[in-house]
């Protein structure tokens, strides 16, 4: 999957992990690092460098929550929000390469989530 996305994302100046983080934020802006990590199944050690690069590129802001300074909240900048329009074509291009329908993709995602969940239980 990463190989399919790479040339499309390079045009946007993004890596695949950066794209995944932005997908989470485009769905729900203003979430904590731990929430992004939970949704992407990534630990903070992996996620922090990705977030720093996205912040350096001007796509997001990292701020400590006032209610709990241990938590870092991630919010899109206007540039990060605007990138969503360009990123729509990325997913569409990859879906065309897969030659799968939306219901097939949803079923595949559900099956993969089940596999990941079952493997995670043994950790």
Automatic annotation (TrEMBL):
Keyword annotations from UniProtKB, A to Z: DNA-binding
PROSITE patterns attached to this UniProt entry: HTH_MARR_2 (PS50995)
Domain of life: Bacteria
DNA-binding is among the record's keywords: yes
Subcellular location: Cytoplasm
GO function terms (MF aspect): DNA binding
Residues covered by the HTH marR-type domain: 1-117
Stored PANTHER family: ORGANIC HYDROPEROXIDE RESISTANCE TRANSCRIPTIONAL REGULATOR, TRANSCRIPTIONAL REGULATOR, MARR FAMILY
Protein name per the record: DNA-binding MarR family transcriptional regulator
Organism: Methylobacterium fujisawaense
